[in-house]
Amino acid sequence: MTGPSYPSTPAYGEGAPRRGNSFQGGRPLGSAYGDAPDPRRRGVALAVALSVAWNLVALLGVLVLGWPAGNVLLLFWVENAVLGVVTLVKVVTAQGTSTTRITVNGRPREGSPALFGVFFTFHYGLFCLVHLVFTGFVAVAVGFEPTFALLGLPVVLLVVRYAVETATTWFGPDGQRRTLSASTAMGQPYPRIIVLHLAVLGAFALVLSGTGGTGPGWLTTLTAPLPPAWRDDGVVVVALLLTVKTVVDLVTTRRVLRRR
């Protein structure tokens, strides 16, 4: 005689969604409402926020606070120089494995952090030297004031900004230092400095041709609705460069910091 049948009781955790269920091999949730925060995303968000904030401060300084346009242009070069120092630190402290070889005096050699560091110093230094020549010319042409309040203090803030970013995204608990190689770290700043170098060359051309009533027709038309003070040659050049710089910073920062 067969007894009544009863529905079987599922094993503990069976039938529950695998996502967030450690009994079924799912990835545990960081909280009752979502995934655990990704440290890498936090690092990217911090770097992007610092970059955008810095560019906005520079733009407001020229438009509202009366900062000399030449000072902001010089800060562009200082930022590239600081970025070079930061990159050199990354190159010599990178712990990832590199298979890239460097040719020295016609002989291929295994790339080491020290060798990559020497190569980067000379190569990037050449870029910065050429950049300084054109930036210095434009800064002198539009006017600058080499005082601590208008130039020295912004440089200090710039160094602090990159120190915070590097400590977080490179040396932090989930920093790139442990996974990126010296050769990869060495190549990170080049897209940015190349684009900015082209932008500085464009600014150089605008200064030579004039951006006010004597400048290109399209630029004169574009700046016509602006207040007279904003149509100054230096202000126009800085505004255009900051626009280009912000776009470049957003693209390159996100791409670099998401790399593993």
Structure, explained:
The chain has eight helices and two strands; from the N terminus they run ααββαααααα. The protein is mainly alpha-helical and 260 residues long. It has one domain (38-257). The protein has a two-stranded antiparallel ribbon. Residues 19-24 and 26-34 have low confidence and may be disordered.
Order of helical and strand elements: HHEEHHHHHH
What's the rounded overall pLDDT mean? 77
Whole-number tally of structural domains:
1
Class from secondary-structure proportions: mainly alpha
Please summarize the sheet with the most strands.
2 strands, antiparallel
Please tally the helical runs, counting DSSP H or I stretches of 4 or more residues.
8
The helix fraction, in percent, is 55-70%
Looking at the structure, what is the overall shape? Answer: globular
| Rounded Rg | 26 Å
Distance between the termini: 66 Å
**DSSP strand count:** 2
Pfam families: DUF6498
Keywords: Membrane, Transmembrane, Transmembrane helix
InterPro entries: DUF6498
Quick recap:
By secondary structure, the chain is mainly alpha-helical.
List keywords for this structure.
260 residues; globular; 8 helices; two-stranded antiparallel sheet; mainly alpha
